[in-house]
Amino acid sequence: MATTNVQITPTRSTLAQRIIALGVVFAFFYWASSIVMTLMLAVLLAYFLDPAVVLLERLHIPRALGALVVLLVAIAAVGAIGYLLVNRTQSFAYAWPRYSAVLRRAAESVDRKIGTIERAFSITVPEPAPTQPSVSANEMQEVRSWLLHGIGTITSGLLLWAFLPFLVFFMLVAKPRLWHATIELFSDASRADVRSALDDVNVVLRSYVAGSSLVAGILAAACWIFFAIMHLDYAFLAALVSGLVNMIPYIGAILSWIPPFLIGLDKWHSIGPFLIVAGVLSGLHLIAANVLMPAIVGRSVHLNALAVTVSLLFWGWLWGAFGLILAIPITATLKVVCDHVPDWQPLGRWLGA
């Protein structure tokens, strides 16, 4: 008897239900952004610190004690960097009125030049009030709101992120049990694929976090040396910020110009130093993106340029500055999941094409 393979196509109601479910998920990501971001950061840190815990476990140190030791060392390292950063940030904050005045004068000069060009082309525009500041309080509030978008207020963000070390600790301690329990959720026929997917996610996240941290450190050190040669004030602070934002694909090179440009307004009175800074930082960005990241991270995080751009736009819109940080690991994890689900493999191939 001949058998006939019947392919069932999704009905409109099924597609509508999937779209509604997807909308509910993204709505949850938006309204519960502080909780979701805290959990995702905890997962990334747990993957990053897990090899050290495993190493201590091989030395016959209990996993709970090893996780506590590794976490305390990580907190001490972050605290030391934060101490250095806070001292320099306070010094810069005290000197901010001087830089603000220089920035305001530069913005007013640009406004006058634009007005001259507009008058030359006979474009009538209303003259701004002489007492109107170039950078209004509303504009500064908009920038602050975007940076804190997804967190809420600083107080609520600090309260939620106070749980971050505890989440990381519990994830490190319970990882073997959680790993086994996750696999047990699936049928026997699917467990091999699930185990393979979890292994791939482990490699992707660990490689990305470790590689990105190393590259960011290299970039910050290179920027520090360069800014010191340029005799730039607050070289360490500017280098740390420039090195970190330089890790953002594509737009990181331009964002890294902002700290030295802002500080250099009070020191440099010609365009030459600004062009040198822009050229060197752009060169460092190209080296990091095309040499360091492929060599250190390898091809474990394989996403095409379009997927990276769309991911940055979407997660940056949804969560602000922290969305830009989490965009790549989220998309890379999504690709791994798509690669191991037959119906989603076309999407996985598109993400890595």
Please characterize this protein's 3D structure:
Helices cover 77% and strands 0% of the residues. The model is unreliable at 1-10 and 130-137 (pLDDT under 50). Helix 2 crosses helix 3 (63-94), helix 13 (305-319) packs across helix 14 and helix 14 (321-340) crosses helix 15 (345-352). The chain is globular. The chain has a domain at 32-96 and 136-185. It is built from 15 helices and no strands. By secondary structure, the protein is mostly helical.
Q: What's the helix and strand layout?
A:
Blueprint: H1 12-31, H2 33-58, H3 63-94, H4 96-120, H5 137-147, H6 154-161, H7 164-184, H8 191-229, H9 235-245, H10 252-255, H11 258-264, H12 271-296, H13 305-319, H14 321-340, H15 345-352
Helix pairs in contact: 2-3, 2-7, 2-8, 3-7, 8-9, 8-12, 8-14, 9-11, 13-14, 14-15
The portion of residues assigned to helices is over 70%
Strand portion, in percent? under 5%
Number of helices: 15
Overall strand count: 0
What is the first-to-last residue Cα distance? 43 Å
| Morphology call | globular
N-to-C series of helices and strands: HHHHHHHHHHHHHHH
Poorly predicted regions are 1-10, 130-137
Estimated radius of gyration? 25 Å
Major sheet size, sense and barrel closure: none
User: What is the mean predicted local confidence, pLDDT?
Assistant: 77
Secondary-structure-derived class: mainly alpha
Quick take:
The chain is mainly alpha-helical. It has helices at 12-31, 33-58, 63-94, 96-120, 137-147, 154-161, 164-184, 191-229, 235-245, 252-255, 258-264, 271-296, 305-319, 321-340, 345-352. Helix 2 (33-58) crosses helix 3 (63-94).
